[in-house]
Amino acid sequence: xxxxQFLLLEGDKPVPLGSRALELLIALLERRGELVSxxxxxxxxxxxxxxxxxxxxxxxxxxRRALRDGQDGRRFIVNIPGRGYRFVASxxxxxxGN
Length: 98
Prior knowledge:
The chain is α+β, with helices and mostly antiparallel strands. Helices cover 36% and strands 14% of the residues.
């Protein structure tokens, strides 16, 4: 992931992902392993704007699809119902970004 370029890569190929879903990923990675509340995520992605919780659900689903979360037994994001989300996968930093 190249957060400075707002780009998610799989190998050397860009993964299509909207800016809000990518912002969710960055927020989760910054607090990797910790429970991040839905309120914290919504405040981060939609600052100073009221949005319905369904917006978070839609963009989190897009993020999970892009990561292929749950496929082949791989888990990246765990939902704690009513509370928030946790990024649980290990992450390798590359020399070209985060």
